[in-house]
Amino acid sequence: MIEAFKKLWPNRTAVDKISSMEELEKYVRIELNDELTHPRVRKTKAEKLQLAMERIEQSDLADDEKTDLAELYKKIAAH
């Protein structure tokens, strides 16, 4: 799943450094909380989840990779 995530976000330096599921989950949590965006322009977790789902669906990943990543995002968004 880590390699699929790296394919989904190919030009992000922090993504290249992910080497464990814990790091992947942490990065997804940061993304869903929009922590890397200025507070005044942050999107809600629901908006970020929707954007991630669209990006996953429109990607060239294999269907099983899409399913696994979508489930990961949904699981983390629920907490």
Strand content: under 5%
Q: Mean pLDDT, as a whole number?
A: 95
Total count of helical runs of at least 4 residues? 5
The rough form would be described as globular
Low-pLDDT stretches: none
Order of helices and strands: HHHHH
β-strand number: 0
Rounded to an integer in angstroms, the radius of gyration calculated over CA atoms is 12 Å
Largest sheet: none
Residues in helix, % = 55-70%
**Amino- and carboxy-terminal Cα gap:** 20 Å
Structural category: mainly alpha
Q: Total domains, how many?
A: 1
Describe the structure.
- This protein has 79 residues and is mainly alpha-helical.
- It has one domain (2-8, 19-77).
- It is built from 5 helices and no strands.
- Helix 3 crosses helix 5 and helix 4 (45-58) packs antiparallel against helix 5.
- It is globular, with a radius of gyration of 12 Å.
- The two termini are 20 Å apart.
- The relative contact order is 0.18.
- The model has no long low-confidence stretch (mean pLDDT 95).
